[in-house]
Amino acid sequence: MRIAAKLGLFAGGVLFGTAGIRILSSRDAKKVYTHATAAVLRAKEDVMTTVTTLRENCGDILADAKAINEERAAAACEEIADTAEEPAAEPAEA
Fold first, then answer.
1. CB–CB of 29/23 below 8 Å?
2. What domain of life (predicted)?
3. Which of 7, 12, 66, 88 has the smallest count of CB within 10 Å of its CB?
4. Does 70 map to a domain?
């Protein structure tokens, strides 16, 4: 490739890069960035609302599960106490 062609490609790249930077820093681009950031913040708020609801539901489920286990343990203790209070059968005399 000739040197002139290489220099032309380099100059075109610099020009394109400079124009790209100007486009990215323009007022219109800043509006796009602002709207995109606002959309991300709204999405984050929705996700956090869902997470909060899920955490509350998980807490309720955990509390209900603990209550069920406590009721089962109490019932098991009562059953053991009932069997211990029953009189033992008298052995048959031989």
1. yes
2. Bacteria
3. 88
4. yes
Instruction: Examine residue 36 and state whether it is found in any structural domain, yes or no.
Output: yes
Question: How far, in whole angstroms, is CA 23 from its chain's centroid?
Answer: 37
* Angle in degrees, CA 57, 60, 63, rounded to 5: 150
Secondary structure in 3-state letters for 45-85: HHHHHHHHHHHHHHHHHHHHHHHHHHHHHHHHHHHHHHHHH
Is 46 within a domain? yes
Cα separation, 8 vs 1, whole angstroms: 11
Return the amino acid letter for 28: D
Q: What is the pTM of this model?
A: 0.48
Q: What domain range is 33 assigned to?
A: 18-78
Counting the structural domains of the chain, the total is: 1
pLDDT at 2 over 70: yes
